[in-house]
Write a structure and sequence with these properties.
The complex is a heterotrimer. By secondary structure, chain A is of the alpha+beta class. Chain A has 3 domains: 140 residues, Beta Barrel (OB fold (Dihydrolipoamide Acetyltransferase, E2P)), CATH 2.40.50; 61 residues, no CATH class; 206 residues, Chloramphenicol Acetyltransferase (2-Layer Sandwich). Helices cover 23% and strands 22% of the residues of chain A. In chain A, the strands form 4 sheets. In chain A, strands 9, 12, 13, 14, 15, 16, 17 and 18 form an 8-stranded mixed β-sheet that branches. Chain A has a 4-stranded antiparallel β-sheet with strand order 1-8-6-3, with no helix packed on it. In chain A, a hairpin with a 2-residue loop joins strand 12 and strand 13. Chain A is elongated. Chain B is of the alpha/beta class. Helices cover 46% and strands 9% of the residues of chain B. By secondary structure, chain C is of the alpha/beta class. In chain C, the strands form 3 sheets. Chain C has a 5-stranded mixed β-sheet with strand order 7-9-8-11-12, sandwiched between helices. Chain C has a 4-stranded mixed β-sheet with strand order 4-6-5-10. Chain C has a 3-stranded parallel β-sheet with strand order 2-1-3, sandwiched between helices. In chain C, helix 1 runs parallel beside helix 7, helix 8 packs across helix 12 and helix 9 crosses helix 10. Classes of the chains: A alpha+beta, B alpha/beta, C alpha/beta. Chains A and B meet through strand 5 of A and helix 2, helix 11, helix 13 and helix 14 of B.
Chain lengths: 457, 358, 323
């Protein structure tokens, strides 16, 4: 049975792409021995003999004298199991004596028969030579269809530090649209992005998902198998902040039940005063906030932030109280700045204003950032208890449950009292349970006996 | 007579150019006669495998090969003078030494194929990895010799260098260090007359390479490197000196590189055919065979056995090298450190995922 | 490229009889890559000559010649053999000017056939540039094609500072039209080989060709317009050209075959983040060789950075804008 093998033009280590056939030393049909010279080839640099890699019968020659063959082209086809009658002169693997002389690079013949080197012959010293197929294409690992971003007008791109770029990406803000920004040299700042997000971005619950930039919508796109609601703007930012909080803060929670009887009595008294003074009504929430500020001043450890680089704890001197506020556009946290310096009346007015404006969407970015401690009044939603998520990067958040008449034990007797559950979630790196407990216990004492606050006035 | 202290640096020779016994040394070849058929056989095998490796390169199977044609006696004679536990520090052309020690030629072939950097098969036989950068191994041989003495194992080490390497700073530092520490080390210089295109006459102005040994304070001897008996007996003496605590020796084996520097070299550009022919007339294989005949130790069975062994090793070499599969690329990362660093593991994973993508 | 280098040497020797060429096998043989072919015949064995096999002596002697007013252009036969000369290059050649308070110039141009991708033997495919770039006082030049090889070699020889002139062996047999006539290229100017607005690819030497191929494919297959910068000289580094491009694209990928850690990519990445922080749409990415010794010939095609590894990195960079 014929067993045809192809001998490809070898790379002779001279960095060549091709060779030119000078002379065939065998002919088609002839038997050849292993290592028997097949031909003489000339490259731009040398003339060399090429020995046969197999014994067998020559079936085809790759070119005529004068032809140029590329490296990797067929030099010869050899049948290594030819039909009887063309058996090779010597069996492969047994070297005859004398052995076929090895051909020499750059010398046209073996020693003893060497002829003058053709003019201009050259050879490199080492190697297979440059492989024309080096670095063959393989499948690239990812095929995500990322499109090039359109170049900015005139080639100018928005300038922004990477974290701001990330924020813009998260909030769906097009940096190019708001560039130049308010930072040095027209750089877009975090504030610029937040402002753009709160004025332009909306939770487009009713609109269909936007097509990815590289996939132009054709024919309406694929059939929907679920309702996908794109999240942007405020909600996206909240989502990011909640995720960050959960990912980065090892939080713990504790809670107490407070008897709010005296607090409600106080509120009634102050409510009358407010009505006569023309100020907004005082709510139990505002009173709790005021008492919380008092308790925090005595226990400042949780008016703080954890700093990863260091690590360290930054204890804030001022108390900027974040007020968790449900709005149509999602949760907002307006900030009562310097809450510890505000009398109750002023605190009540400020909370009233902030909540109203938050719902109206008229707060400035400054009024929505910079809190050091946040209070969540989920009791206003009718919820009895809950575990709030810390407003990253703060150290703690207080959750206030609904005040309702509940069974309560007073002097060994179960009686109905208006009670509320106060829940504190705190960054356990910043404070231990004891410190959190002191804060929360002190707050309960103040809520149950608000007149104690007089000591601090 | 102790040739090592001879102040006459004429070549030690026991086999004349025509193969008859030579009077040019006081050494008695009798001790070598029994071993000579086996040395002859290894020289024949070396020659044939050398040819086969050249052929494989011409057939596109090897990146490169540095043939040793013409230097078989210098290599086989030296290796035969050593114990199997004596460390050799080769350059890259010492096929005869490798084969004498029983190194599998397939490993040598794969080294030149560019499938590995090639320490496997050598270090197991007390042979350091080939040292393609010139001369550095001479210092390694000295350090290993110092260690050998501390270990008290009675070993010697051999630094294989060439005429070109004697110009490298490392070699001079090695000679001095060995002399000063009396290290049991042999500097075995195969003077094959050509460092690529530079003839030995332009490599040094000393009357001989052996003179350099004298300058550094060690005995030095020139030996006919195409005379396998002379090489054997001279290195045996040098080794005995070293084992006896008498320090290093420089042996200059005067031989000739009949082939190109490597398969990519074109020696016709820089040397005359006449010079090549004159050395072909001193072919070490023919001289050894005629010397055996003179001594009445030759019979056709020796030749037949040598050719048979050469033939089977050629076939083995060709089978193991021709179209041999490439090693796994990821193995590159496994031997950089004793334990790969995290960064290397990341890079390994990156390449793995590329390869997986096809 | 070999002929271009040969022409530059010949023209330099013609113009200035203080230019001398020497090394291993450069005279009679004309160099193992034939770069010095014919120079000995034309200019005589005093100006183009072989020396004994000792790289430290080649560089050390060049220093002495320069001290006496010559402009030596020695060759170290292969990249891996610069290491025996490392001490002379780093300790002496690089520092002579500063040690002498500026009194002594070292107009030495060391030519080194360099880099891989030719299926070569061990120690014959090294990327040495980081050693030199890291050594104050050395200029480092890497031409990517014949025309630059000619003009940059002339510029290097004319330069009064020591230059490591790293010739990509893989490009030796590349042919191109080269305008002769002594047009020398001042050192320190990169060139934009292809303009584009999508991302900037910074490279040099062998991999300029790879980057150009990748850019063609990227344009055809992905619609990306890559800007390809050929640094040409690593010291002095033309950062202005890099900065202008990255400011426009916001994406920067550095491509080299030297191992990754502390390669040129590390320096470019550092400079880009220092000076273009606000322009970056994505981190600067490096596409490089691995942190292993250069592999045996049969494995180099897997080891070397190629078109696809580069395009993967471009894609990764662009994905930051669409996370």
């Amino acid at each position: 049975m014929p067993d045809l093998r192809e001998f490809l033009v070898p790379d002779l280590g001279e960095g060549l792409a091709d060779v030119t056939v000078v002379e065939w030393l065998v002919s088609v049909g002839e038997a050849v021995a292993l290592n028997q010279p097949l031909c003489v080839v000339e490259t731009a640099k040398a003339t060399v003999e090429i020995p046969s890699p197999w014994s067998g019968a020559v079936v085809e020659l790759g070119g005529s004298p004068g032809d140029t063959l590329e490296v990797g082209a067929v030099l010869a086809r050899i049948d290594v199991e030819p039909a009887p009658g063309t058996s090779s002169p010597t069996p492969p693997g047994t070297s005859p004596a004398p052995a076929p002389p090895p051909t020499r690079p750059g010398t046209p013949a073996a020693p003893g028969t060497s002829s003058p080197t053709p003019p201009g012959t050259r050879a490199t010293l080492v190697g297979y030579g440059p492989d024309p197929s080096l670095g063959p294409r393989r499948q690239r690992r990812r095929r995500t269809g990322v499109a090039a971003a359109p170049a900015g007008a005139g080639g100018a791109r928005a300038l922004a530090p990477p974290p701001v770029r990330k924020l813009a990406l998260d909030l769906g803000v097009d940096l190019a649209a708001i560039a130049p920004g308010s930072g040095p040299g027209g750089t877009v700042t975090r504030k610029d992005v937040c402002a753009a997000a709160s004025t332009s971005a909306t939770w487009s619950g009713a609109s269909p998902p936007a097509a990815p930039p590289s996939a132009p919508a054709v024919g309406g796109g694929p059939a929907a198998v679920a309702d996908v609601v794109q999240v942007g703007g405020v909600r996206a930012r909240i989502a990011q902040n909640l995720a960050t909080s959960r990912q980065r803060i090892p939080d713990a929670t504790c809670s107490v039940v407070a008897d709010c009887t005296r607090l409600l009595e106080l509120r009634a008294t102050l409510g009358e005063a407010a009505a006569s003074g023309g100020t907004p009504p005082v709510t139990p929430f505002v009173l709790v906030c005021r008492l919380l500020v008092l308790a925090l001043r005595e226990n400042p450890a949780l008016n703080a932030s954890w700093i990863d680089d260091g690590p360290a704890v930054r204890v804030h001197r001022s108390m900027h109280l974040g007020i968790g506020t449900a709005t149509e556009r999602g949760l907002l946290v307006p900030v009562v700045r310097d809450a510890e310096r505000r009398p109750t009346r002023e605190l009540a007015a400020e909370v009233h204003r902030l909540v109203a404006q938050a719902r109206a969407g008229t707060l400035t970015p400054a009024e929505l950032t910079g809190s050091t401690f946040t209070v969540s009044n989920f009791g206003a939603l009718g919820l009895d208890e809950g575990i709030p998520v810390i407003n990253y990067p703060e150290a703690a958040i207080l959750g206030l449950g609904a005040i309702r008449q509940r069974p309560h034990v007073v002097d060994g007797e179960v009686v109905a009292r208006p009670t509320a559950t106060l829940t504190l979630a705190f960054d356990h790196r910043v404070a231990d349970g004891a410190e959190a407990g002191r804060l929360l216990s002190r707050l309960r004492s103040l809520v149950e006996a608000p007149e104690l606050a007089l000591w601090e006035l | 007579m102790d040739v090592l202290v001879a102040d006459d640096l004429a070549c030690v020779q026991l086999i004349d150019v025509d193969g008859s016994p030579s009077a040019r040394s006081g050494l008695d070849p009798a001790s070598a006669l029994d071993r000579l058929p086996s040395l002859y056989e290894t020289m024949v095998v070396t020659r044939e495998l050398d040819d086969e490796l050249v052929n494989l390169q011409r057939q596109g199977q090897l990146a490169l090969f540095a043939p040793c044609r013409g230097q078989e006696a210098a290599q086989v004679g030296c290796a035969a003078a050593l114990r199997d536990t004596d460390w050799m520090f080769p350059q890259y052309r010492e096929l005869g030494c490798f084969l004498y020690r029983g190194v599998d030629p397939v490993g040598i072939g794969l080294l030149w194929r560019g499938a590995s950097h090639g320490a496997r098969g050598l270090v197991e036989r007390a042979i350091a990895p080939v040292c393609i950068s010139i001369g550095g191994q001479a210092l390694h041989a000295v350090g290993a010799a110092m260690a050998t003495r501390w270990l008290g194992d009675g070993g010697v080490t051999v630094a294989f260098i060439g005429d070109g390497a004697t110009s490298e700073g490392d070699v001079h530092e090695a000679l001095n260090l060995a002399a000063v520490t009396r290290a049991p080390c042999i500097f075995y210089v195969q003077n094959n007359h050509w460092a690529i295109s530079t003839p030995v006459a332009e490599q040094l102005r000393a009357p001989s390479i052996a003179h350099k040994g004298i300058g550094y304070g060690m005995p030095a001897v020139r030996v006919d490197g195409n005379d396998v008996v002379a090489c054997l007996l001279v290195v045996e003496q040098a080794a005995a000196r070293a084992r006896a605590g008498e320090g290093p020796t420089l042996v200059e084996a005067v031989t000739y590189r009949l082939g190109p520097h490597t398969t990519s070299d074109d020696p016709s550009r820089y040397r005359d055919d006449a010079e090549v022919h004159s050395w072909e007339a001193r072919d070490p294989l023919a001289r050894c065979r005629r010397f055996l005949e003179h001594a009445g130790r030759f019979d056709e069975a020796i030749e037949r056995r040598a050719r048979e062994r050469a033939g089977s090793l050629r076939a083995r070499l060709r089978a193991g090298v021709f179209d041999a599969p490439d090693p796994a690329p990821l193995e590159l990362f496994d031997c950089v450190f004793s334990e790969p660093t995290d960064e290397l593991l990341r890079q390994r994973a990156a390449l793995a995922s590329e390869l997986e993508a096809g | 490229m070999v002929q271009a280098l040969n022409a530059a040497l010949s023209d330099a020797m013609e113009a200035d009889d203080k230019v001398v060429v020497f090394g291993e096998d450069v005279g009679r043989l004309g160099g193992v890559f034939r770069v010095t072919e014919g120079l000995q015949a034309r200019f005589g064995p005093e100006r183009c000559f072989d020396v004994p096999l000792a790289e430290s002596s080649i560089v050390g002697a060049a220093i002495g010649m320069a001290l006496r007013g010559f402009r030596p252009v020695p060759e170290i036969q292969f990249d891996g053999f610069t290491y025996p000369a490392f001490d002379q290059i780093v300790t002496n050649l690089a520092k002579y000017r500063s040690r002498s308070g500026g009194l002594i110039s070292m107009p030495v141009t060391i030519r080194v056939p360099s880099f891989g991708a030719i299926g070569s033997a061990e120690h014959h495919s090294e990327s040495t540039e980081s050693y030199w770039v890291h050594t104050a006082g050395l200029k480092v030049v890497v031409p990517s094609g014949p025309a630059d090889a000619y003009s940059l070699l002339l510029g290097s020889i004319e330069c009064d500072d020591p230059v490591l002139f790293l010739e990509p062996k893989r490009q030796y047999w590349v042919r191109d039209e080269v305008e002769r006539g002594g047009n020398r290229e001042p050192l320190g100017k990169a060139v934009v080989r292809r303009s584009g607005s999508t991302a900037t690819v910074v490279t040099y030497g062998n991999l300029v060709a790879t980057a150009m191929e990748a850019a063609s494919l990227a344009a055809a297959e992905e619609g990306w317009e890559l800007e390809v910068i050929d640094l040409r000289t690593l010291v002095p580094l033309d950062f202005e050209t890099v900065a202008a491009s990255v400011a426009a694209t916001g994406h920067c990928i550095v491509l080299h075959e030297a191992p990754r850690t502390l390669g040129m990519g590390a320096e470019i990445a550092a400079r880009v983040q220092e000076e273009l922080f606000w322009n970056l749409e994505a981190p600067v990415l490096r596409v490089t060789g691995f942190d292993t010794p250069y592999p045996p010939a049969r494995l180099e095609r897997d080891w070397l950075p190629g078109v696809d590894r580069l395009l993967d990195a471009v894609e990764r960079s662009l994905s930051y804008e669409h996370a």
